[in-house]
Structure formats: structure tokens, C-alpha cells
Amino acid sequence: MPPSDFKRVIAESPYVFIIGVAGDSGSGKTTFTHAIREIFGEDLVSTITTDDYHKYDRQQRRELGITPLAPEANQLDLLEEHLAELKAGRAILKPVYNHNTGRFDPPVPFSPTKILIVEGLHPFLTPRLRALIDFKLYVDPDPGVKRTWKIRRDVEQRGYALEEVEREMEERKPDFERYVAPQCQYADAVIRVAFSKYGREASEKHNIYCVTITQSKLERSIGDVDLSIDLFPLLSLSERNFMVEFTLEEILGRKMGALTFDGELNDAVVRKLERNIEIQTQVEPIDLVEAGGYLTAGEVAQLILAWRIINRRIFIESGLKAVETEDGAASGNGACRSGRD
Ligand SMILES: Nc1ncnc2c1ncn2[C@@H]1O[C@H](COP(=O)(O)OP(=O)(O)O)[C@@H](O)[C@H]1O
Ligand SMILES: O=C(COP(=O)(O)O)[C@H](O)[C@H](O)COP(=O)(O)O
Fold it and tell me: Which residues belong to any copy of the Phosphoribulokinase/uridine kinase domain (predicted)?
């Protein structure tokens, strides 16, 4: 498949590709999801948050003494059914949880796009959910980063008092450890975020964090999808601090490659990667930064994950094509592939 066919192939294929993003509250799921939508184009990507599948509203949770992280506080069976419907290309009537009121709004009709992101506290909790999701990402900021992010967002955007957020964070810790954190073991990629090695001020004032992408090993690489980072501008044009490091890690018995960025990279360093993603997605310009500017480590991580997602989608397409050729018919949408790329 020539690279420029990617968007057309996705648009014409019946396959609904589901990306799952799991992590604790305030860990950057929504922020990352918006970035991926921007990279792939709003017309191709839609998002569902699993918060909409809470079983109880805020008042009921208080009365029952239950946190939203407990699986029994969520309608995971309905989420499974709805994801299966969407994967089969059918519309659903989606519940809506309103974070402003802490109550449910009336359900809304929701139709699948060819790339669907499902983000929330529990997207990988059940085997059926895991089977429906094609690419699984777990976001895992350091506790200090998560605390700063969560407090800022809940106080400034959700109208909570600081003490309320702090108390709730304490109350939620056991359920986080029990139900949310273990989902990390199912992820194809994990993003870890720490304060920058160039100082906490760099993080808090300039959004510069030390970001590590930990990925399961690729068993097959797709030739069309080229991950090029240019060493010349890296070595000669940069006037700001940056760091790139690669290490091998063993996480829960799985061999993972850990790629860490910190600081800011000159845009020329990742220009080829940006162009490659533009050709693949036909979304252009992928302008995370103006010419001559700098990308933060987090933005570079977003680009690399977009590249990994494209790689996975093309891998699935090549599998669908093979089945089509063997059977003389399309394999259809409901087919969930269990093989990893
Ligand atoms: N990559 C990031 N860089 C800088 N700040 C971030 C990043 N991701 C999240 N944040 C901050 O954390 C807050 C919570 O992030 P959000 O994406 O809403 O988390 P979640 O959806 O996991 O609850 C955001 O409002 C933002 O201030
Ligand atoms: O843990 C979360 C997940 O949301 P997010 O990941 O977006 O923070 C929220 O606390 C619940 O959804 C309840 O919402 P609320 O606390 O508003 O009642």
C-alpha cells in the first residue's frame, strides 16, 4: 500500500479501529486523546469516555461510600456491548455523565468513526474489552506530576475546593492500586511523565516534562511507515537543552523498549517524522510547532505514538487483505484480532 493511500484505505475499509487510553483521573488521558485527534484529523476520529458508563451519580456514590474506580460502580457490561456495536459499525445510544453537575444528562446517539478512542479508568479491565481494542495505551505520570495536574484541573475547571480534591485523592488510592494500575500489564505502550530533569519550573512554566514511551517489541515492522529522526539538526541546530535515551526494561515479565525524551527538540529534528505522518494521514500540516521552533518532549512522544498507531492500523489492514484474498470476501468488521504487531 503506498503511504498516501492510508487515509482513503481507512475511510473505505469497514474496519473500526479502536484505540484504548487507560489511566487514573488527572493523568493526561483527555489531553493525549485531543492531540491524537488533531494529528489524525477530526473527521476520522471520535472519542468515548468510560466516565459516561458510571453506574451511580456523585450523590449516590457518596451515599454508598464507593469510588468511581470500583468496577461495580460502572456499567462495564454495557460498555462492552456498546463497543462491540460500534466496532460492527452500528450506532449506539450513549449515556452521558456530566462532570459539572455530577449527574447524568439524557443519552445521546453516537455513531462510530473509522478510528474510535475509548479513554477512561477501566478500558482494559475485562477480557472482552481488551479483545475489542486494537491499540492499548496506559498513561502513567509520576505521583507528583499527577497530583499537580489533577488539582489544577479539578479546582480550575471542575469547581472543587483544594481540600476536597486532596481528600478524594487519598480515598481513591486503594482502588487505584487495585483496579486501575494493573491494567498497565495489557498495554501496547505506556507513557510515563516526570518533572523535567532541567528543573520543575521548566515543567510548571513551560510544559517541559521528561517523557518515557515504553513499548512492547514490534514483531513486524511495516516498511511504509518510516520513523526518521534527523541527527544533523539534533547535533548542530539545537540551542536548547534536550535529552534522548533508550533502555531495555522488563516489566511484569515483558521485554519493553523505553524511549525517554526531556527538554525541547528543534522542529527540524522531527520534521521527517511529521512529514511521514502527514503523508500517511493526509492531515496537513501537522503543525505542532512553527518552523524554526521547538517541540517539547511530550509533543515528540505524541508524534511517535501516532506513528506506532499508524503502524498497527496498517498491520491490521494487511491481515484483512490476506483474509479477503483467501476467502474472496471481506472479513467484516466484527473480527477482533488477537495477534500483536
Ligand atoms: N501532556 C501534558 N502536558 C502538560 N499538562 C498536561 C498534560 N496532560 C495533562 N496535563 C494537565 O493535567 C490536567 C488533567 O489532564 P486530563 O487530560 O484532563 O486528565 P484525565 O483525562 O486523565 O483525567 C490537564 O487539565 C492539564 O492541565
Ligand atoms: O475519576 C474520575 C474520572 O474522570 P477523569 O479521568 O476525567 O478525571 C472522576 O472522578 C469520575 O468520573 C467522577 O467524576 P466527578 O469526580 O466529576 O464526579
Answer: 18-193
Q: Which atom from ligand 2 is nearest to the alpha carbon of 102?
A: 18
Nearest-angstrom CA–CA distance, 51 and 75: 10
Q: Where are the domains of the chain?
A: 1-139, 188-326
CB neighbour burial string for 295-317, b if at least 16 within 10 angstroms, e if fewer: bbbbbbbbbbbbbbbbbbbbbbb
Which pLDDT does position 220 carry in this prediction?
58
Q: What is the pLDDT of residues 277-298, one digit of tens each?
A: 666 665 555 555 555 578 888 9
Residue 63 CA to residue 166 CA, distance in Å, equals 20
ipTM of the modeled complex: 0.95
What is the distance, to the nearest Å, from the Cα of residue 87 to the centroid of all Cα atoms in its chain? 18
pLDDT at 221: 54
With 0-12 CB in 10 A as exposed, 13-18 as middle and 19+ as buried, what is 286?
buried
Ligand 2 pocket mutation pick from 76, 99, 125 by most atoms within 8 angstroms of CB = 99
C-alpha distances out from residue 34 to 42, 46, 96, 227, Å: 9, 10, 19, 22
Is residue 120 within 8 Å of residue 85, measured between CB atoms? Answer: no
**Residues 118, 98: Cα–Cα separation, whole Å:** 17
Percent with pLDDT over 90 in the chain: 54
For residue 31, how far is its CA from the centre of ligand 1 (angstroms)? 5
CATH code at 1-139: 3.40.50.300
